Amino acid sequence: MPGTGPVAAQSTSQNPPTAAAAATGSDFVGTNAAADKDARAVSLAHRHIFGIKGGIKGNIHFTEESHLLYPAGHNAILYYGDQKTQARVYPGMEGSEGITCLAVTPNRKFLAVCERFQERAVCSIFDINSGKRRRNTLSYTSGEETTREFVCASFSAENKFLITQGGPPDWTLTLWSWDKARAHGAVKVSNLTGSVIHEVSFNPTDSSLVCVIGDGVFKFFRLQEGTFKAIPNQLSKMREAVNQNYISHAWLHDDRLVVGSEAGDILLFDNGGEFKMTLPCSPGEPRALLTMAAFGKGFVTGGEGGIVRVYDRAIDVKEVFKESKKIHLDGKPNGERSGAAGPGAGYVTSLVVSPSEETVAIVTSTSQLLQLSVSAGPSDMKDAKEGESVAVENILTSFHSGPILGLDVCVRKPLIVTCGIDKSVRIWNYVERTQDLCKFFGEEAYSVAFHPSGFHLIVGFSDKLRLMNLLMEDMRTYKEIPIKGCRECRFSHGGQFFAAVNSNTIQVYKTYTCEVVCNLRGHQSKVRSVCWSADDSKLVSTGADGAAYEYDIIKEGRRCSDFTQKGTNFSCIITYTATENAQQTNTVYVVGSDKTLKEVQGGNPVNCLESNSTMGQLALATQAKALFAGVSESELPGPIRCYSFPLDGDYVEYQAHSLAVSRIRITYDEQYLFSAGDDGCLIVFEIKKKVPTKRDKDAFLGFADEILVTKAFLDDKQAAQLDLERQVEELTSRIDFRLRHRDSYHKEKMAEMQEKYSEEIETERRKFEVLREEKAEMEMTLWENIKTQKENHAKSTQDLEQSFQQKMLVEVHRYQKLAQDLEKERQEWEAQHDKILEAQSAEIEQLRQNFEQVQRANREEQDRLIREKELAFKSHQETLAQLEQDADREIEELKEMYERKLAQEKDEKVRLRGQAGIHKKYHDDLDRQMQKRTDDVKKEEEKNRQKEESIMTLLKDKESNEKEIKERDKTITDKELRIYDLKKQNQELEKFKFVLDYKIKELKAQIDPKTADIESMKKQTQAMDDELNDYMRKNKQLALDISQLQMKQRALQAEIKSQKRRLRDDLNLIKRFKLDLSETLEGVDEPKVLKEGMAQLYRKYVQNNTKKLDLDTDMQLEYKRQRDYLEKSVDSLKRKLEKDSQSHRIDNMRIMQENVSLIREINDLRREINQLKHERTAQELQVQMGQSLGKDTAVDPAMQEEVALQREQIAELTRHLQSLQDTAPQLEDASPLDGAATGAAPPPAPVLGTETGAGDGSPLQPPQDAAADATMLPAGSDDSPELPAAAADEVVPEQGEAAGAAAPAAAEAPAEAEAQEESDEAAAGEEAPATAAAESATAAAAAPAAEAAAGCQTKSRGACHQVDHQNQKSCRNHQNKRGDERDGAIGGEATAHQEPKTRGVAAAIQRKLPRKYYWWPGESEADRLSGLSVAEG
Predict the structure, then answer these.
(1) Lower CB density within 10 Å: C or N end of the chain?
(2) For residues 326 and 376, what is the distance between their CA atoms, to the nearest angstrom?
């Protein structure tokens, strides 16, 4: 809305501010950060308020010609009538009990809003233009007396002072300097009985003079020296006799005062408060002058019966004013029709005249805001005197005149519906801020519901529940349901159902058939609120019995959950549906008389918030994450609270209604919030939030603009349109005739005027020639005069210049002389100044020396005086003590003497007091007698005056009665003659009556037998009517069949005609083609001519007649249907494929896991087989070695040479390995094979030299620690685990006899490596698609195999014996066989199934050393580098 007023919200927590805090004028703002955050995220802004708060003084003011100030709810509104908008909202203070009065400064810049609090009244000052509230508020307290409310307020003419009239029981009048918030004076103005004070005001010309009126109170006060002093007036004495009540007054523009009494008398006073007269034009009706307003020509009054009277100055001096208008706001005086105020306009409570004095704004007791024009002509005055209605209009729209009981909002249209205790149902447009429709009924409407489409209404009246169609200009009932006093009814969100409350039962109906779906029972008392769930499947309810139930409509109204709290009267319930994991959960929020907000889920309370106030209504904005609640405290203002959602206890409060909130609704798009209250106001709030609303999105459907009308309405409109068109044609012809007639008349007039003007032009031309000659002569004379003046001016100018030059020379000489004198004076002054400075310095020095001497003398004198003072003080103390003793003695003597005199005086005083009492009593009796006599005289004078007035009145009545008697005598004579004639006619009629009675008897005798015939004929007629109706129904059906057959016949005839036409065209075409073909065939002997003829035929009949065939509509539909079917089939197949792929993926994962487990099992079996084979081989070696040892004497010399050769090779390899170890970097946690003689190994496993010991004949065994820690990792991995130190020590080779067996194995290792690589490549090719999980599982399964292979190594040093070449060869053959059986899954890694005597140590080296620190025998440097790059990759 354009330019809202000051922020009306107060962010608060569970402890709202007290009334005392609010009375200081500071708005309470909570410190809760969450509340501040929510207030910023979601806030409410006043968009429009429909209604006005009546019953307070000064509740309407003009700030400009079309700008009005008035209270609405708990706010003051600035309304721009020219723009039809409420520009500013001035909110009331939190904690107040309501606004009591308003006042505006005469310059129309500031607004005073008076509010009532529990402790004291507060008056706030607003800047009207900016809307800001001034910090300083006005609140009066004097000792223990505190003013709780201000009933009236008024500003002075110079805008500096403000007077406020306090309420009962003190009725204190206070004068304020409002800009400083300071009170200048206060006085109690009521009488001893505490009569009501109605109005106070300043004198426009004298701000120190104040007028106060009330019941039996009429006083003038003048402010003098900070106090009010009463000014006596004549009316106070008259009031004691008459005891009048004064209820209104107004200061006229000529500074006179008019006062209206309750009896209907208008009293006129002058500027000083002196009574002048009672105006003769006084209405004289009780309570006809409830309010007054002055304007330039007079004043306006309003009172009971909705009557407004306008008084203007009279021409007759004695009358002073006369009544010029009398307007009835509800129409004619006899009430035949209703005016703008509606039926029963009530009485006028306030009125004000606009600044231009053209219109009067009026407020009635039925809360209507009206306007009428006071600038009327004589015809209007005449109409007003004759009782005709003057144009009275609503300034905004008409409002509810009592509490609003029902409210609902439409989804498809920007409409809201309300119903109230004033028996009206109203439709409002909240976007255009207008009232679309208002209809009054004979019964009160308690509830109302709006269908989402905007075409139907449900209204619960006191006698029935009515379903209505909302037409363009009316609400028409189409169904009545016998539910009395339905207090709650709601349509479902989809509009297919509606629920209506029947006492303690809820009845659910189908909207379009009005069939009962289910009856929901369970409440023990009246149901007060119902609410549908989001999907309309469930309904929640609550009532005065403190129970909240949830019903499932789909399951025939079965109760889903319940929550009961006895002793609580629940007033409203709402539900919220949350969806989590495809599960819908309904959460219920209820409020009631226990001043708490409860959150219930599944029948169990989840959260309970203390509200410290009774909340009556709830509304939930799920997208905005806010819950709105209306406060419903009795006789207190009803604000709107905005809670953050989900509930955390923090809220923001917005001032809204002056009484309890009765209904709250929110739009479907959560953009607007509507609230209705017991004060009759409908408030539209705009919900401002950061998240976009549904209507903000492009895809959301806009508002509908369709309306419902009846066929009769359209017929009437068409008839009216035809009538208007006929009238327009008649007027057009009439106007054309008049125009033609007027053109001819104008032509004649034009000719006459042209002749007349031609003569006048000729005359004027002659005059112009004469004047032109005179002008030429005058110009010549003037030119000569100008020339003479120019010459004289030049001569005088030259003389002046010469004299000026001479004067300038003289002045220059004088200036030079003065300059010289000035220089001389300056030099003399400087010399004198220097002399004076020297003399002054010497004098100052002398004075300083004198001062020092005097100062020393003064100090000595001061010391002497101090010593004398001490001596004098001692002597003074002694003298003082003696004097005090003498004085005490004298005082005692005087005390005794004066006590005796005082006793004598007291006795004398008692005697004189008795005498004075006697004299005073006698004097009072005399005063009372004199006052009584004076009053008697005044009463007698008043009686005489009244009797004289009554005599004059009676004389006038006598004259009028005499005239009336004469007229009545004449009328009586005429009436008697008329009576005589009528008597004669009566006699004649008696004769006719006798004759007619006889004839009637005869006719009755004839009619009786015919009556039976008529009855039988009626029965026959009824039967024939039934038969006729049956025939008519059959005829209608037959006519309908005939019309359908005729339509089919016409369609077939049209088709036949088109086919015949097409056949005829085809026959003609064939005929022409035959003729052209015969002509072409005549040149069959000439190929060229035949070719041209055929080409011409082709062009004529084929190319020209080729038409683009239109597809048949059925074919297109079939094609579309097939395409849709195929698209759906493709979509279904895609979904099925995706589903199958998912299931296959799961099966593959399962199979892969099974394969991994099987591979692990296979590896375990292979490991067991290898271990068994190793044991068997070891046993065979032991047997062979034992046999060889048994033949020590028969050792072959060739064998010894071979062993020696192998030892030399082992030593050489050991030295080479030692050199490699010296060049390699040190590994972590252990040195790399310290002192070991390590040899190069072939690709399957690098071969190390073995170590011989004492030659005990035991084979080399693998160390237990190394076998336990060995794992299978790829060659060249930097993260390979290290050998333990014990293992490193055990595998260090030394010179021994058994070392010769390693050399042949090392010689034959390349062949085995090549075979192993081929098998590895084949295995890798077969299992390339294996997953990473399978590879890791395979590697883990291969690690125990490596451990088993390492178990074939020697365990202790010197346990190795020489073996023969055959045994080594058989071992290698067995190893080759075992390598062929190895699993392909571990082909890329260093195999663990090689020769036991070399593979364990080689695998340990592979795990311990990186790939770049070893190579295979027979491997070139390039091959090693390429292998290194592959390993690193």
Answers:
(1) C
(2) 12
